[in-house]
Give the backbone structure.
Amino acid sequence: MRETIICYDICCPRRLGKMHRYLRKCAVPIQHSVFLFIGSARQLEQCMQEAKEIIDAKEDDLRAYPLPSYGLKARLGKPVLPSKW
């Protein structure tokens, strides 16, 4: 399993809501437009392919950043994820 941060910047409120609802089905919301995806590379590819159908590539921005499997992962403040992460 691989951890990936997915984030977006979407101009249209309708597409914004649709993207947020879609990503809540396959990832864990961290902030308003930032999600943690945990899955295989194939599952990530499928998630991004379906998300690509929602955005307007000329106006919106959708990005995925893989997290390193080793190294510092820190959080300050109120936890969003369950304690097992």
Q: What stands out?
A: The CA atoms of residues 31 and 78 lie 12 Å apart. The mean pLDDT is 90. The two ends are 13 Å apart (CA to CA). The first strand starts at residue 2 and ends at 9.
